[in-house]
Design brief:
This protein has 429 residues and is of the alpha/beta class. It contains 16 helices and 10 strands. 39% of the residues are buried. Belongs to the glutamyl-tRNA reductase family.
Length: 429
Amino acid sequence: MDIVVVGLNHKKTPIHVRESVSFSESQREKAYESLKKAHYIKEFVIISTCNRSEIVAVAKDIEKGTDELKNFYIDFFNLKEKNVASYFMTLYSDDAVKHVFNVAAGLDSLVIGEDQILGQFRNAHEYSRERKATDKVLNKLFLEAVTTAKKIKRETQISEKSLSISTIAVKFIEKKFEDLQSKKVLVIGVGKMSRIAIENLIYRGVEEIFVTNRTKGHATDLSTRYEKVGVVDFKDRYKMLPYVDIIISSTSAPHYVLKKDIFKDSYNADKQLCIIDIALPRDVDPQINDFQNVSLYELDELKSVADENFKARVEAAKMASQIIIEDCIKFENWYNCLPVFPIIKGLGEYSQEIVNRELEGLLSRLEHLGEKDLRQIELFTKGLAKKLFKRPIHELKRAGEDRQGELYSKVTKELFGLMDASCKKDIGG
């Protein structure tokens, strides 16, 4: 049994490949139903964000489990293996654990220390727990990773400045226009990313902001919250093209919400138009970028702005990495000790059984003593047994941490006759 991470992320996978393996809500449900039938996967969590599509799993057989996860991606998304094989990221054991900690803390994000990933990370774990796809190993791993991420944010202030993709998008726009305040902006979508973008635009003094969404009620709710935001019917979004200077699009639509042919007949070719597409799958047909006076920017291109913040966060990231190393070692020690925990429990029960049996006989022969004396004898006997087993228990834990837990557990079982103790039973610690 071992921990493995298989998936595709922003570090080596281009956006057109990432969007093809992004799980929609309905797909995620089907994916869980499918993966729960896997032969070599005991536990798993799917992490699907705009920058990554990854599966963290506990595999019965590491090689067969890894192949099963890769084949799942290929079959589930109907991919051609030759087109994605080189993009797969595969991590095992300690490397997989460290990766999970790094993801939770935002150290593996497009922007170091970004805030949104921790919430997405926790939601992914909770979703998996609700579907009984996790057990003690991944529950422990994800809870420890969340605890470490919170500690990093508290002790290093790595996320002191908000650097979500939405914030970067607005900063990116700000670099393109000398006078952002006078510009008119259309925001497509009403999710969290859109709200963050709107708040950043308002903060920078933009006076005219319009929002549109397929469900008009949600857009109306957003305009109620922000006085400067007007609502546009979704069917009228193309009519806004000649009027606005900037479009920020962030929806969960599985297809383009701005299509090339309709766009071409609707926009003003003599006017500069900046479009930021921060959705995955993409909202805007990439060919729109070929039109006169249109500048289209996608997720991957926002990295240039993210790089400006990199230097300021390098030292914080170094401190965060040290914290992660220490906490990863603690988790790995726990994980490596899984085989010895049932044996330690068995030793405790074995010693308790002997003490109780011997005390019963001894105390029955010492009835002439007072209750206080009898209690002292009982405490001394139990304390002595505890001290006698302290060294064996310590050595079992040390052996577990040294990855010799299976061997030492087997020997201890035979030495003490703990035939009912099982490495697969009562795992905990």
